[in-house]
């Protein structure tokens, strides 16, 4: 009932354990707090919170328009509804190194288990679009060093994302991954890898956990967890999958509603009332209410015996 029963500190320790388990961990992307609860119920290891999803849900493109406050607020709302560790996309850290430091502490306060900071120019663009630009190595490492220095919980995960492969190639991605680890990154997110050999190249370059982004319509094929584990990937995210699925279904129902004047044809594909009530745990709230409000309220103006 209400929020998660585990603490942010426990979630951060658990995330570390998952990444060191030797088994690739799946983190579907949540686009609402309720979807995070569904991810947990289905048995996934953790929840990913995509910057693109947060922007798109506000009706904005993923080009660095969201603010630290918007991202922290929504990410915190999602994180508090699940017992799973949540990893959030913090874009470029929302500014210069001092801003990056503040970003980390705000995300800690919001209950996140970790975040990733990328090496694109600020403002950034979606990692699977062409025409990206990356900052120089000095700027990239200063961001990560500021993030690592700012955290107060040593288990808060600082992941470094690099987009340099699309700009300078896989050798540059290996070199940058090493530099980011030296700067304090606990894990590496190599964006837009072309094939499994490129994931293997990053695995060979660093000895920290690495993440694979299995986003639809992107630069990477949609590899299976078995394939990714064989090349040493520790975590795989599906950042926009649930949002795309939900919006696709919504669009189809709206078309039918206009064409037929009723949603009847799609009722069978909807989440039922009973299932929705189960997800939001109506029964627990009902028990709570009956346990608290277990008394009878007398009439306020009941006549006294003297006036009878």
Describe the protein's architecture and organization:
The protein is α/β, with parallel strands linked by helices. It has two domains: 8-240, Phosphoenolpyruvate-binding domains (TIM Barrel, Alpha-Beta Barrel), CATH 3.20.20; 247-292, no CATH class. It has helices at 8-19, 33-41, 51-57, 68-79, 97-109, 137-150, 165-168, 170-182, 196-205, 225-230, 241-260, 273-279, 282-292, and strands at 25-28, 47-49, 86-89, 114-118, 157-162, 187-190, 211-213, 235-238. It has a five-stranded parallel beta sheet. Strands 1-8-7 form a three-stranded parallel beta sheet, with no helix packed on it. The model has no long low-confidence stretch (mean pLDDT 93).
Quick synopsis:
By secondary structure, the protein is of the alpha/beta class.
SSE inventory with pairings:
Elements: H1 8-19, E1 25-28, H2 33-41, E2 47-49, H3 51-57, H4 68-79, E3 86-89, H5 97-109, E4 114-118, H6 137-150, E5 157-162, H7 165-168, H8 170-182, E6 187-190, H9 196-205, E7 211-213, H10 225-230, E8 235-238, H11 241-260, H12 273-279, H13 282-292
Helix pairs in contact: 2-4, 5-6, 6-8, 8-9
Please, how many domains?
A: 2
Largest beta sheet: what is the strand line-up? 2-3-4-5-6
Instruction: Tell me the overall shape.
Output: globular
| Superfamily (CATH H level) name of the largest domain | Phosphoenolpyruvate-binding domains
Give the CATH level 1 class of the largest domain. Answer: Alpha Beta
Q: List unreliable stretches of 5+ residues.
A: none
Which structural class fits the helix and strand makeup?
Answer: alpha/beta
Q: Give the strand content.
A: 5-15%
Q: Kindly, what is the distance between the CA atoms of the first and last residues, rounded to a whole number of angstroms?
A: 48 Å
Helical residue percent?
Answer: 40-55%
Largest sheet, described in full? 5 strands, parallel
CATH topology of the largest domain: TIM Barrel
Overall mean pLDDT stands at 93
Order of helices and strands: HEHEHHEHEHEHHEHEHEHHH
CATH architecture of the largest domain: Alpha-Beta Barrel
Q: How many beta-strand segments?
A: 8
Rg, nearest Å: 23 Å
DSSP helical segment count: 13
